[in-house]
Amino acid sequence: MKKNIQKAYCAVDYAFQRIGGKYKGRILWVLREGCLRYGELNRAVVGITPKMLTQTLKELEADKLIIRKVYLEVPPKVEYSLTDTGMELIPFISQMRSWGEKRMSAS
Amino acid sequence: MKKNIQKAYCAVDYAFQRIGGKYKGRILWVLREGCLRYGELNRAVVGITPKMLTQTLKELEADKLIIRKVYLEVPPKVEYSLTDTGMELIPFISQMRSWGEKRMSAS
DNA sequence: CGGTATCCGCCGAGATACTG
DNA sequence: CAGTATCTCGGCGGATACCG
Q: Model pTM greater than 0.85?
């Protein structure tokens, strides 16, 4: 029922809405080698505030790119990790980083 | 050094600031097979307004991802095409589209 | 044809403080 | 430790009209 041409272009939009923004790419990237706790993410993603971290994590979780695992302990412990879908994006982000690094040093 | 660590993460930022936004990816994508005129772009990128088209084209040109070529004719003629740097991004955008299409049909 | 010029709403993001 | 709660602001993007 959808117009094929529009759908084709919207796929770019769709993808960028999910990994665009200021922190999504960086969060996915630091999670590439395994799960991290909230506080660890807060330190790994330099400059992010708790508000933006929580907000971004919720969006990534809603898009099924990361998994939020809560341990019912005291003190509280929450771990975040990539889903299979999220891992599919790592090669792409890796290439973007390479491109960005090359461009940054060139200019 | 701290500088290196920050630079590493910022490369993701750097790249996304250049191809993020609502239309940059789509404009680069439609230019992948050759140059297009302003009016052609306006029709190819469905839904974009002249204001956003002009604004986005200027940003892409400033980042040296596209080239703006003006023909001194009447009526006026302006053609936009990818630079080598811009062409380097096409494989990434292609991957993004594939990923986006897969995800869109999955959900 | 290939743009500008306004006006404006929305929301991503920062700063700061507080909580179970 | 792992988050909320407000307040604020810039700017992205939409709508519309006009120009050389």
A: yes
